[in-house]
Amino acid sequence: MKTFRVLGVIVFAIGSFARPAQAAEPGPADASAAPPAAVTYPPESFAAIGSSFAESSHLPELGWDEAQIAAFIEGVRAAFRGKAYSFDDRARMVSAEMGRRVREIVAREKQAAALVYAQPGRLEAYMKEMRKRLRLQQTSSGLGYRINPGRGGIRPRPGDTIVVTCIATAADSTTKLPQLSSERAPLKMVDLLPGFMEGLQMMTVDASAVFVLPPALSFGEGEWPDGVDRGTPLVFWVTLHEVVGAPPP
After folding, report:
1. Which H or E run contains 234?
2. Of 189, 67, 206, 224, which is closest to residue 147 (Cα–Cα)?
3. Domains of the chain
4. Residue ranges in the chain modelled with pLDDT below 50
5. What is the pTM of this model?
């Protein structure tokens, strides 16, 4: 059902900006002011929005026939006319089935993404490309890194707590992963991903760095967070703000 609820939000949003806002009634001070010109949008833009939504929601992969596609579009039109079709038991059943299919498609895509980097030589080729693109060095464990020096001084140790800002991205180094990102967050070194902890131990306060973690140095064979493609490299853009020593035993 989530797919179709999202459609409702999109339809509402399109309807909101497609209709020019009503101008406020002019008061005595601005009675002579001309009303603002109506804003128009080309039909091609709305067609592009529809295509983008359909593709991102995996609608083309659901196997609908022409009659089903036409009925779907008619439902959108009916909603704009204020005569939306009733969401009855049959519609709920179809919606649940479509939602199940979309979840299966997403799961297959994630599995395929993980298998790409499991292919012989694929991860090595990726790391080689990232070393060149981001001017990285690489440790014996496989961690790719580039560190811009800070003020010097102590480096974090495994038992320390740190304050760090971190922007995480997917393997493309562009798609942000907010679930793995933080701003000036206090973190315990022992709770960090292995590659992340390894890289931080090479930093000092106010240093910044980029780390590229192969799967074995991030979540490995364990549970991966929702929204993060299993078995893929992760990229972290990091600034170390503070190091708090471990409390005495």
Report:
1. strand 234-244
2. 206
3. 2-22+38-116 (no CATH), 122-244 (3.10.50.40)
4. 1-31
5. 0.58
